Amino acid sequence: MSRIAYVNGRYVPQREASVNVEDRGYQFGDGVYEVIHVHDGRFVDTGLHLARLARSLRELAIPKPMEDGALLVVLREVVRRNRIREGIVYMQVSRGVARRDHAFPRDVAPALVVTARHGKAFPREIDTWTGNAITAPDIRWGRVDIKTVNLLPNCLAKQKAREAGAYEAILIDRDGNVTEGSSTTVWAVDEDGVLRTRHLDHHILPGCTRAAVISLMEEAGIRFEERGLSEAELRAAREIFLTSATSYVKPMVRLDGVAVGEGTPGPVARRLFELFARHADGAAHNVPPASPRLASCGGIG
Questions:
Q1: pLDDT level of residue 299 (50, 70, 90 thresholds)
Q2: Ranges for all domains in the chain classified under CATH 3.30.470.10
Q3: How far apart are the first and last CA of the chain?
């Protein structure tokens, strides 16, 4: 079956989909994107993702291409036409098409592209859902809290991880502190047993899965600290795990070739994996593609 994409008002076979060569997303990377996990036909954390999309658009002064209700109709239709039960739906909004000039054009409509693809089913056993990580220098720009399509430094870090046979590259800033992964939020249980992740600022993306996990921890009474980690603290950690829309809660059992803790998923990661699995299976604020209801979207900064 041919994959179907939505491109600026039309549903078209993906192999025939195209954008204008003067689209500013192509010319300047002047655009933003979001990815939503589809699990068992259900959009996971939809409200959080749409809220972050709106925030990214505001930060770059790009108008919304449509209101959330209409966008959700498009997302549902792309998922339906591609018969996705497990996978992702991807949306990208650029400033639009205009003569090439660094300054923003006036009176230009934003461009919207939506695609979807099949993926593996949600993992059921954490012991088969582990990975290895490497460290890499963080060379990204100063506003990575905006989810832009400017991902070349992330791609370079991810490629370095792949070449090392690792799942992820954990980024270290020039002061020797952990920021995040190339496409994930980084969590660690430090040598004192304290669960930590970096506080939100301009140097990390406000992860939607991060926000969902924090909400789950607060409901379950699990203590954690939004406090940065040095590279040395990361290397001494009892547990390291990642969160994202496609990593869910994923333990890293080796870092730069050295075992993390005992080299197996730790008790904190196990507990959060279980909580998030139940959340993805049917929490009230995960939206079925057949329903237009949106969630409360607070807590992502």
A1: very low
A2: 4-118
A3: 40
Per-residue pLDDT of 106-118, as tens digits, reads 999 999 999 999 9
**What pLDDT score was predicted for residue 147?**
98
Among 33-42, 222-231, 287-296, the minimum mean pLDDT is found in: 287-296
Name the residues annotated as catalytic: 147
Tokens encoding 57: 């658009």
Distance, in Å, from the CA atom of 223 to the CA atom of 115, rounded to the nearest integer, reads: 38
Report the topology of domain 126-282.
D-amino Acid Aminotransferase; Chain A, domain 2 (3.20.10)
Spatial separation of the C-alpha atoms in residues 135 and 88, rounded to whole Å: 27
The domain 4-118 is classified under which CATH number: 3.50.50.60, 3.80.10.10, 3.30.470.10, 3.40.50.300?
3.30.470.10
Q: Which two tokens stand for residue 188?
A: 């660690």
Token digits of residue 268:
């904190």
Chain region(s) in the chain for CATH 3.20.10.10: 126-282
d(CA 84, CA 187) in angstroms, rounded, equals 30
pTM: predicted TM-score of the whole model, two decimal places? 0.92
Element (H, E) at 231: helix 231-235
Residues 155-204: tens digit of each pLDDT = 999 999 999 999 999 999 999 999 999 999 999 999 999 999 999 999 99
The strand pair at 225-226 and 195-197 is best described as parallel
C-alpha torsion sign, points 192, 194, 200, 203: positive
User: Could you tell me the two tokens for 231?
Assistant: 């590279």
2-38 confidence digits (pLDDT tens): 799 999 999 999 999 999 999 999 999 999 999 999 9
Tell me the C-alpha distance between 237 and 191, whole Å: 5
